[in-house]
Amino acid sequence: MGKGKAKIANSIRTLRFHAGEMTQAELAQRVGVTRQTILAMEQGRYSPSLEVAFRIARVFGISIEEAFQYEGETSN
Question: For the domain with range 5-65, which CATH number is right: 1.10.287.1040, 1.10.620.20, 1.10.260.40, 2.60.120.560?
Fold first, then answer.
């Protein structure tokens, strides 16, 4: 890997909206993280562990690739 930082995009906000406008707090509780963690993920400031990513996908009944997208490296 180069010097750039890997960028993981996600569809969490959209998924929450389509799931009856699920709150960040509700998703956080179901996944086992804090609401602030969900917020940071939605804002692109935090990439979850693989385990948390799978948990989020399972909450919505979708594949991990539908919830998270790898955008490669960005240069700094």
Answer: 1.10.260.40
Q: How many whole angstroms separate alpha carbon 8 and alpha carbon 37? A: 15
Q: pTM of the predicted model, to two decimals?
A: 0.84
Q: Tokens 């240069």 — which residue? A: 75
Q: pLDDT truncated to tens, each residue of the chain (76 aa)? A: 445 555 889 999 999 999 999 999 999 999 999 999 999 999 999 999 999 999 999 999 999 999 999 987 655 5
Element (H, E) at 73: strand 68-74
- Spatial neighbors of 10 by CB under 8 A, at least 6 apart, are 41, 42, 44, 67, 68, 69
CB under 8 Å to 56, separation ≥6 — which residues? 12, 27, 31, 48, 67
